[in-house]
């Protein structure tokens, strides 16, 4: 059986990535969502001869063997000619500073939420509002990777529940500002923009 091939630039990145274009790539841990986002970025960059700015939100200073191995895998996978900015918690500032970049790939919103998990609600809301001013981007293309965390049970710890609720709400807010939406499950990418409808809000 021959599978139909999807042209990511024509379906979800728009015709050449018009100004103010955002794409959200969701998936579970280990689903392949980062690889798919990198594929979208590479395809668009090759088609339009534009550079890629990779914005990494993970805490590169975290002393954890598994986490450091994961960071090394991600770094090895990126093309050598991509630019990388490790912004940590300063995601909004990094995107604002990179406003003129033609293509920004953010990996990931979930790591960003983790770095700010200790903030109380008012301070957290201020961070979210600042980030949302970057969407839709004024120009170029922004691809965002995030975890879909709302399928499991209620986390038993308060910190886990806070992470799930904050990230789920952030995903919904960002999705409303994006023109392209993908869901990656078990190494398979589904174009949500083509096959879904937005849930109505009161």
Shape: globular
Total number of strands: 7
The level of helicity is 40-55%
Uncertain residue ranges: 1-18
**Structural class by SSE content:** alpha/beta
Helix-strand string: HEHEHEHEHHEHEEH
How much strand content do the residues show?
15-25%
Q: Distance between the terminal alpha carbons, to the nearest Å?
A: 44 Å
Tell me the number of helical segments per DSSP (H or I, 4 or more residues long). 8
For the biggest sheet, the summary is: 7 strands, mixed
Radius of gyration over all CA atoms, rounded: 16 Å
In CATH, the topology of the domain at 23-136 and 147-170 is named Rossmann fold
Q: Classify the oligomer.
A: single chain
Instruction: Output the strand order for the largest sheet.
Output: 3-2-4-5-1-6-7
CATH architecture of the domain at 23-136 and 147-170: 3-Layer(aba) Sandwich
Q: What's the rounded overall pLDDT mean?
A: 85
Write a brief caption for the model.
This protein is α/β, with parallel strands linked by helices. It contains eight helices and seven strands.
